[in-house]
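User
New here, help please:
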Amino acid sequence: MTKTQAKPGVGMKVAIQGEPGSFSSEAAAKLLPDAQIVPCSVSGDVFQALSCGDVDAAVIPIENSLAGSVLEHFDLLLTHAVTVVDETLLRIRHNLIANPEASIDSIERVYSHPVALAQCRRFLADHPTMKPLAFYDTAGSVKQLMEQRDLHAAAIASETAARHYGATILAAGIEDNPENYTRFFLVRRSAGAKSDPLPNKISIAFSLEHRPGTLASALKALAELGTNLTKIESRPVHGKPWEYVFYVDCQIRSSDEGTAALAVLKPHCSMIKELGRYREAGSAGTAG
């Protein structure tokens, strides 16, 4: 990087759902190291802030290797004029965190996001005196216990959250399965968004005509193009019982192949929207 090149994220505001120290804030710092993190309470607020121009970008979790897809975020990507421009993977390591004066024997309540609690069932089962309680955010649960100075409460969150709020890790790596990763999207407003000039992945949302075999025909068209389908997810259409929107991720060899994938799908679809073309996490040149 030359002196004339700006560092990634300098001067940018990036919205996340959750508090500083959350896994989303870690992912945002990984994608845009010098950006200003703007915490939001709920995901709808993240997309609203981005759509209104209050922030320049957003970082959202889209899929966890154990818990599956974050379905709400598929719906929000479809209904807002936004574009996925990058993705990254984050290893999720959970820790039991408390006030520095607390001990593991004194803990009676454990707060965290419901997904984090579910991913630490074995640890909680081994400590039956600890009652798990759902909270809106992992890092937010650490923030709360530090503000209340509750020596009988703990949180499940990241090491970053413990450092950020001056808390202590009582037990590290308490997740049931170490193969725990979350995929995050970097999202920009569609107007003026610059996609990667050498994308190798495309995300598409589409709904189908009510004809027998339309899904099979659509997927066959992608297969004949040689496009590798890596993910498919269906979501109900609000207000239209038994109708669905399908979300697919495809590996592509060029941007032109992404355009061709949209073209071969179009004859089968009543609606089609490109969600973004970007570099797959872990590919050369990406932050993932």
